[in-house]
């Protein structure tokens, strides 16, 4: 059975803090792509938007979909950020496809990370200069290499299909556990809840990277693990350094994790997610400074 919805969430949060991603890894668990037209500067009054994406690829696949989509907005001046979780089946116009509409995850299969960034950016109304992309195997391997992450499981789970069999409460997860948690959609709220849980993994990863309660040696060790797994596509070393510095400046306590409001429905024979009309005000609140003041 083909596994879908592999999350990039924790991988990306961990990677973004290294500032060392210019090192050439022996094997890449994730890739940081710079969109061709991107202009990246860190300024206190300018938010930065980064797409965190998990694709559904397995070894040998050449066409993959963006099945875990998280738009991270960072406000450098205020030291705050928001994770906007986009359900993979959100039914939207795909840029460069005329008036065609499709599930938003199809943009990756059509035009790779750059088109996925444009599709998500067009939905929300922001420019997305960077995409961080991984598959589930790379995510699992790297989390294991890091020694796992601590995740607060919000309710008991018993889903043998995904492997998510957890008691409620904080659990130290290895790569397999984290992937099972990210895949489980047989829960109240279905894919909306699963998408939010992927954002929770991102926060757990950022907490691990910042080494809260750990010494400097431990933090540097985690960064070295990430450097071994990262690959750059179109980024200069200066870009990588600034991106890393930006990430470590954010305290996980100052990050909001919010799922885009929507409703399940059908388009033709396909099950899709329609964007709720109330999402427009959420996007407005998010795009000006990456901070949610009224949501």
Question: What would your notes on this structure say?
Answer:
With 295 residues, the protein is α+β, with helices and mostly antiparallel strands. 35% of the residues lie in helices and 26% in strands. The protein contains eight helices and 15 strands. It has helices at residues 9-16, 106-124, 136-146, 175-183, 190-210, 216-229, 237-248, 279-287; strands spanning 30-34, 48-55, 66-75, 80-86, 91-93, 101-103, 130-134, 149-153, 157-159, 164-166, 169-173, 230-233, 255-259, 262-267, 270-275. Strands 12-1-7-2-3-4-13 form a seven-stranded mixed β-sheet, with helices on both faces. The protein has a two-stranded antiparallel ribbon with strand order 5-6. It has a two-stranded antiparallel ribbon with strand order 8-11. Strand 14 (262-267) and strand 15 (270-275) form a beta hairpin. Helix 3 (136-146) packs across helix 4, helix 3 (136-146) runs antiparallel to helix 6 (216-229) and helix 4 (175-183) runs antiparallel to helix 5. The longest helix is centred in the last third of the chain and has 21 residues, at 190-210.
How do you describe this structure in short?
This protein has 295 residues and is an alpha+beta fold. The protein has 8 helices and 15 strands.
Radius of gyration in whole Å, from Cα?
18 Å
> In one word, what is the shape?
globular
For the largest beta-sheet, the strand count, sense and barrel status come to:
7 strands, mixed
Q: Terminal Cα separation, in Å?
A: 39 Å
The DSSP helix count reads 8
Report the sheet-strand fraction. Answer: 25-35%
Give the neighbour order of strands across the main sheet: 12-1-7-2-3-4-13
Number of separate strands: 15
Order of helices and strands: HEEEEEEHEHEEEEHHHEHEEEH
What is the residue-averaged pLDDT?
A: 81
**What structural class do you assign from the helix and strand content?**
alpha+beta
Summarize the amount of helix as a percent range. 25-40%
Low-confidence stretches: 1-26
